[in-house]
Amino acid sequence: FAWQGIEQYYEKCDKLTVCQQLFFTYANLLNLEIDEIKCRKRAKKCVELWKNYKSKLDLGIFVSTVLPTIKNEEITPQFLAICRVLVEFPFTEETSPLDEHLEKMYLALCEDDSFDQRFEIYCKLIPVLKSKGKRQQLVHTCEKMLSLYNNNAIAINFFCESFISNYIKTITEPEDDILKLIDKMSSLIIERCEVLLLAQPTNPNTPNT
Fold it and tell me: What is this structure's pTM?
């Protein structure tokens, strides 16, 4: 209850003066809160504070405060709320302790149906999986993204790139006849044509009729 009292006090003060103290208070409360609704509300307030006063806030203190929760193996409302805040931060030396946890954070948020920024998180998750060489998980993730955003050209591009790249890397013997290779790839890709045809990507340059 002490942290809640401090929160209420700082929220009544001039934000420009106490933004860092309030930022640190939010970090501690996010570590302690277990109620799902309260977690989301506090995460939202924390993100708003960051967006309005980011030049005055110390990311290192915030990250070090919530890092023990991020290291926890269990995905809880508390964990998800903290992730919603952390994904707003830029990649800097202050946020580098999060690097090894990015995949877990992104995967958790992609599975959070109540999070309205999942598309952006998918776009962050896919390069992470690619950098780790997780080809099968990459294809699965791109398929999931496409199923959710099947009229989005970015989602379709991610899917096509991941699937073709995954197939090419499974080739162990070089083909003398390039046509045979193309034929093999075409036969496998055509299995996914139904998904791609259903997608029907929209052209942003096409005027509405």
Answer: 0.78
